């Protein structure tokens, strides 16, 4: 069998970003307003810092107003809530992202519920979750990683995914559940697998579309993949790589890429697959949020 097509998430993310830059410049021309994005980071987790820096840089490249609030890991919950409230009331801020996970002494759901739904560019507020699961995707802000994964699927398979068997591995609120909602809305036949699933390899073998969001390096093996299936690898796992030098690490996904590429029809790499799309979709959501807060008409959807 021939090797799978490799889905270039970096290139697709760049094209999305170019479109957002153009739309953002047009908004600035017509109304004098820049979309404003605030990212809140509590604690010093080095991996989170990399993502937050990437988000910051991309927001600036899109012509957005971008602010970053870094709080100490031991910041009291009340201070985090007060900052969210301040950002809720700041007219220059249209999107708020609180980087997860939060330190254990902070109640995550309390923080996420306080964010105004119209500023919730992560799509984690119950209002946005509800709109998505009720099938009103266009009224919601949709979580960035699933949205970016769907863009890659449609670029690979075309606009019509109806009737396809989709297996989502993982049922988190950030990735697995919203991914399943989106695929259901595309009329896929959706199976959600998780740590209690019996005979995961057999379940995955039924899939025309596999989305792996597990957080276990290279867990999904090549011979689980139905020949020709499309594989979206959401996993970001940092492994030590002494062969690259002392103290070095490398990123791997949740799929054993070298094996799966022999079976799949198309597959996303890690890095360079879903990760860059997540950041691009955050920019899409921030612009959408800004236009809604300014009572401007919706623009053509990007997916
Ligand atoms: N590319 C990107 O932009 C992003 C990447 N990620 C990455 O995606 C991965 C998943 O993230 P996230 O959803 O937050 O992770 P969570 O840890 O919240 O969820 C993991 C899910 O995988 C399931 N699971 C764990 N072990 C197994 C197993 N052996 N067999 C089947 N299912 C299993 C769990 O099941 P159960 O519910 O039963 O415990 C759970 O539902 C991580 O690698 C993360 O770094 C995350 C966000 C964005
Ligand atoms: N509130 C919140 N929203 C999130 O969206 C969120 C979060 N918290 N917590 C952490 C996860 C993880 N995440 C990633 C984003 C971009 C890359 C990314 O850009 N990856 C690149 C390069 C990564 C690198 O080289 O380190 C790639 O895969 O090619 C990865 C992971 C967003 N998350």
Automatic annotation (TrEMBL):
Single annotated GO MF: methenyltetrahydrofolate cyclohydrolase activity
Any single biological process term in GO: tetrahydrofolate interconversion
PROSITE patterns recorded: THF_DHG_CYH_1, THF_DHG_CYH_2
Entry superkingdom: Bacteria
Keyword Amino-acid biosynthesis recorded: yes
Tetrahydrofolate dehydrogenase/cyclohydrolase catalytic domain location: 7-122
Amino acids binding NADP(+): 170-172, 236
Reactions listed under catalytic activity: (6R)-5,10-methenyltetrahydrofolate + H2O = (6R)-10-formyltetrahydrofolate + H(+); (6R)-5,10-methylene-5,6,7,8-tetrahydrofolate + NADP(+) = (6R)-5,10-methenyltetrahydrofolate + NADPH
CDD domains for the chain: NAD_bind_m-THF_DH_Cyclohyd
InterPro entries: Aminoacid_DH-like_N_sf, NAD(P)-bd_dom_sf, THF_DH/CycHdrlase, THF_DH/CycHdrlase_cat_dom, THF_DH/CycHdrlase_CS, THF_DH/CycHdrlase_NAD-bd_dom
Keywords assigned: Amino-acid biosynthesis, Histidine biosynthesis, Hydrolase, Methionine biosynthesis, Multifunctional enzyme, NADP, One-carbon metabolism, Oxidoreductase, Purine biosynthesis
GO cellular component assignments: cytosol
E.C. number(s) listed in UniProt: 1.5.1.5, 3.5.4.9
Pathway connected to this protein: One-carbon metabolism; tetrahydrofolate interconversion
Domain annotation Tetrahydrofolate dehydrogenase/cyclohydrolase NAD(P)-binding: ranges: 143-293
Record-linked Pfam families: THF_DHG_CYH (PF00763), THF_DHG_CYH_C (PF02882)
Cited function: Catalyzes the oxidation of 5,10-methylenetetrahydrofolate to 5,10-methenyltetrahydrofolate and then the hydrolysis of 5,10-methenyltetrahydrofolate to 10-formyltetrahydrofolate.
Similarity comment text for this entry: Belongs to the tetrahydrofolate dehydrogenase/cyclohydrolase family.
Subunit composition and interactions: Homodimer.
Alphabetized HAMAP family for the sequence: THF_DHG_CYH
PANTHER family tied to this protein: C-1-TETRAHYDROFOLATE SYNTHASE, CYTOPLASMIC, C-1-TETRAHYDROFOLATE SYNTHASE, CYTOPLASMIC-RELATED
Protein name (Swiss-Prot/TrEMBL): Bifunctional protein FolD
Organism: Roseibium suaedae
Gene field: folD
């Amino acid at each position: 069998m021939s090797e799978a097509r490799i889905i270039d998430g970096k290139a697709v993310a760049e094209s999305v970003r170019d479109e957002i830059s153009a739309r953002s410049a047009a908004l600035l021309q017509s109304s004098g307003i820049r979309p404003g994005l605030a990212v809140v980071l509590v604690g010093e987790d080095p991996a989170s810092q990399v993502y937050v820096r990437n988000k910051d840089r991309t927001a600036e490249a899109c012509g957005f107003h971008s602010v970053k609030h870094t709080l100490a890991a031991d910041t009291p919950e009340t201070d985090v809530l007060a900052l969210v409230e301040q950002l809720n009331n700041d007219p220059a801020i249209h999107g708020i992202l609180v980087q997860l996970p939060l330190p254990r002494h902070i109640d995550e759901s309390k923080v996420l519920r306080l964010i105004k739904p119209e500023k919730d560019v992560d799509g984690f507020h119950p209002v946005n979750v509800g709109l998505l699961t009720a099938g009103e995707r266009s009224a919601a802000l949709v979580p960035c990683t699933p949205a970016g994964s769907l863009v890659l699927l449609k670029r690979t398979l075309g606009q019509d995914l109806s009737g396809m068997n989709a297996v989502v591995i993982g049922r988190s609120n950030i990735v697995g559940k919203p991914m399943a909602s989106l695929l259901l809305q595309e009329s896929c036949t959706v199976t959600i697998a998780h740590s209690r699933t019996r005979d995961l390899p057999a379940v995955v073998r039924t899939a025309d579309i596999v989305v792996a969001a597990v957080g276990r390096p290279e867990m999904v093996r090549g011979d689980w993949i139905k020949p020709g299936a499309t594989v979206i690898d959401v996993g970001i796992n940092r492994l030590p790589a002494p062969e690259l030098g002392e103290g070095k690490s490398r990123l791997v996904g949740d799929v054993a890429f070298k094996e799966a590429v022999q079976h799949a029809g198309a597959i996303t790499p890690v890095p360079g697959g879903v990760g860059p799309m997540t950041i691009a979709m955050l920019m899409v959501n921030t612009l959408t949020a800004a236009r809604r807060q300014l009572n401007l008409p919706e623009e053509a959807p990007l997916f």
